[in-house]
Amino acid sequence: MNVSVLFALASTFATTAIVSVGGLASMFPEIHRQAVNVHGWMTDGEFAAAFALAQMAPGPNVLLMSLIGWRVAGGAGMLVATLATVLPTSAMALAAGRAEQALSRASYYAILRQSLPPVVVGLILASALVTGRAAIDDWLGVALAAGVGIYISVLRTNPLVPLCIAIAIGVTVRRMGF
Asked: Is 59 helix (H, G, I), strand (E, B) or coil?
C-alpha cells in the first residue's frame, strides 16, 4: 500500500471538503482540478464518468470522492477519501450548529446569512461549467445537456424521466455511429 498516495487523497479531499461552502457540488471544479490536472489520478473522461455515476446513484455527493479514492488506491483509497471528506466537515457542522445558537442574535449574522446564497450559486455554476467541459465533447452532448436542462427548468419535474430519455438517445445515436 502506497502511504503517500493515501496521504495525498486524505489531504486533497479534507481541504476541499472544508471549504465547500454550499455543499460538495460547489467544489466539483476544484475536485476535477486536483484529480485530473494536479495529481493525474484520472482523465477528463474518467472524471466525467465517475461524476455521472455519483450523481445517478442514490445517496450523498461524497460518492464522487469515494469513487476517485477507489480508482486511485482500491478499497483503502475509497475509505480514506470518504473519511477525509466526511469527518472534518461533520465536526465543523457540529461546531457551527452550536455557534449559531450563540450568534443568531448578532446584527452581522443576518447580513452573513444573506450574503452566502449568491456565493453558493456562483460556485455551483462554476461546477456545472467545469463538469460540462470535461463531459461534453461533441454536438450530441451539448444537445442532450441543453435539452435536459431546459426540460427540467421549464417543467420543474423530477429529472429522472429526461435523464433516462437522454441516455437512451445518446446510446442509440452513438451505436448508429453519428
From this structure: coil
